Amino acid sequence: MKKQKRVSRREVGAIEWPTVFLIGACYAAWGGAAIFLWPNYPFVAVIILCVVLAMQSSLMHEASHGHPTRKGWVNELLVGLPIGLVYPFRRFKSLHLRHHADERLTDPFDDPESYYKALWHHEEFPPLLKRVLAINNTMAGRFVLGPWLGSIGFMLEDARLIAQGDRAVRKAWLLHALGLAIVLPVVQFGFGIPLWLYILGPVWLGQALISVRTFAEHQWSERPDGRTIIIERSPFAFLFLNNNLHLVHHKSPNVAWYKLPTLFRERRAHWVAMNDGYVFPGYFALFREYAFRAKEPVEHPVLRRSPETGRAFAPRMRARNVSGLGTAPVPAEPSKE
User: Fold this and answer.
1) Torsions phi, psi of 321, nearest 5?
2) Which of 159, 165, 243, 279 is most exposed, with the fewest beta carbons within 10 Å of its own?
3) Prediction pTM value
4) Is 7 helix (H, G, I), strand (E, B) or coil?
5) Mapping DSSP to helix (H, G, I), strand (E, B) and coil, where does residue 295 land?
């Protein structure tokens, strides 16, 4: 009996209540803005809804890393209602955990979240698409075009995988369809918001807000740790669940969002040295520099320069990673001990 009590306490202690409450507040704000504000203050309702959808995206990211509980199915149930319409949670989780292989960051093929294109692939694009991608590499362009390019590209690729018989992708979309069967009627008939307006308003703007965070999260560097940004301060930090401290998250992916600022403050000099000073004081500094000027080339400056280029050697060792027991990259720099 005593042993059972100890287990129960441990399980209760594993629930991250700040995240649970935030998930509840997010869905309450979604319903509240639509029910109470939309009829009389539609513009205010749309703005609040776009912020809510951005927050739900941040919460999906948090859940993909095993928060707020130790049960994956519970986390999926908590954040899986697709009020943002586009991304099935299981696909988001699968692709994002692949992205966390730091030694492959920015690879046009191996990193699902890379904005770089292989040089040989980019050369095959029509001129108009090349121009669109170049604009998308400015901050203003990413805010406007990024949600459309990302969503359309993602859905086309998943359609290709389903056509090829990928059962996991198909199951993820079937579960997503069940969620949409709830969300779409609620939006159209329960809230009275036309679906076209919901897509062009909250869905588009919500993804655009997230694109502020993702715009410069990663850049090419010879050292994997130098590829990930730190934005020290931002009024968007809460909306992004402190992922502005992106290097800290990448090096400690299982740490809850509300613990990241303390982790950064305690060892600021260490983190800044680790990523070779890829640090900005805030997103406004990024905007000043790159609002209408591309921060990065579309073509990857080093990797995948030709179809024959093989995958660079990246030694790995057995270790615990974000998916459990598996492998992890050998440290970017050897231990000095």
Assistant:
1) -120, -170
2) 165
3) 0.86
4) helix
5) coil
Burial state string for 271-282 with b = 16 or more CB within 10 A and e = fewer than 16: bbebbeebebeb
Q: One-letter amino acid identity for 250?
A: H
Burial of 206 (0-12, 13-18, 19+ CB in 10 A): buried
Residue linked to tokens 């060792």: 317
Q: What is the 3-state secondary structure (H, E, C) of 241-277?
A: CCCCCHHHHHHCCCCCHHHHHHHHHHCHHHHHHHCCC
3-state secondary structure 113-175: CCCCECHHHHCCCCHHHHHHHHHHCCHHHHHHHHHHHHHHHHHHHHHHHHHCCCHHHHHHHHH
Q: What is the pLDDT of residues 123-138, one digit of tens each?
A: 999 999 999 999 999 9
Question: Alpha-carbon distance 65 to 58, whole Å?
Answer: 11
Write out pLDDT tens, residues 223-264. Answer: 999 999 999 999 999 999 999 999 999 999 999 999 999 999
**Residue whose C-alpha is closest to residue 271's, from 247, 250, 254:** 247
**pLDDT tens digit string along 291-318?**
999 999 999 999 988 885 444 444 444 3
Tokens, residue 309: 């280029």
What distance in Å separates the CA atoms of residue 142 and residue 133, rounded to the nearest whole number? 9
Q: 230 — phi, psi (to 5°)? A: -125, 120
**308: helix, coil or strand?**
coil
Q: Rounded to the nearest 10 degrees, how much is the dihedral formed by the CA atoms of 273, 238, 76, 184?
A: -130
Residue 217, C-beta contacts closer than 8 angstroms, at least 6 positions apart:
113, 228, 229, 246
